[in-house]
Write a structure and sequence with these properties.
With 114 residues, this protein is an alpha+beta fold. It contains four helices and three strands, in the order ββααααβ. Strand 1 and strand 2 form a beta hairpin. Helix 2 crosses helix 4.
Length: 114
């Protein structure tokens, strides 16, 4: 049976891959602050080329994130208010590097500032 012509298309099924644990020194003159996090990247399940690209280029994507976060101060990344902004900025930075699709979101499974 066909869905009605005006029916909403089904959203794509999503999958995820581990991005790993990272420790980043923050922009602080004293050098005493850092952000440690573990993240998961979410993307459409059917995008096999994207999955392969993420796996093969993971080191470049991690470098991109480190470069972005090293420019942030503790106040820029301090939870709870900044987590969504950091997620958005990381997603945008990673997507600029990808050629075979886009990730939909980053999830933090650990997020610690000091």
């Amino acid at each position: 049976m066909k869905p009605p012509a005006n029916a909403e298309p089904e959203p794509p099924k999503l999958t995820s891959t581990e991005f790993g644990e990272m420790l980043v020194n923050l922009a602080d003159p004293s050098g005493a602050h850092y952000l440690r996090f573990t993240a998961v990247l979410e993307y459409p399940e059917e995008e096999e080329e994207l999955a392969l690209e993420i796996k093969e280029e993971k080191h470049i994507l991690q470098h991109t994130v480190i470069t972005l976060l090293r420019s942030k101060t503790l106040e820029d990344v301090k939870p709870p208010d900044s987590i969504e902004k950091v997620q958005r900025e990381m997603t945008e930075a990673i997507n600029k590097k990808l050629e075979h699709g886009k990730i939909t979101r980053i999830y933090f499974t650990e997020y610690l500032t000091q």
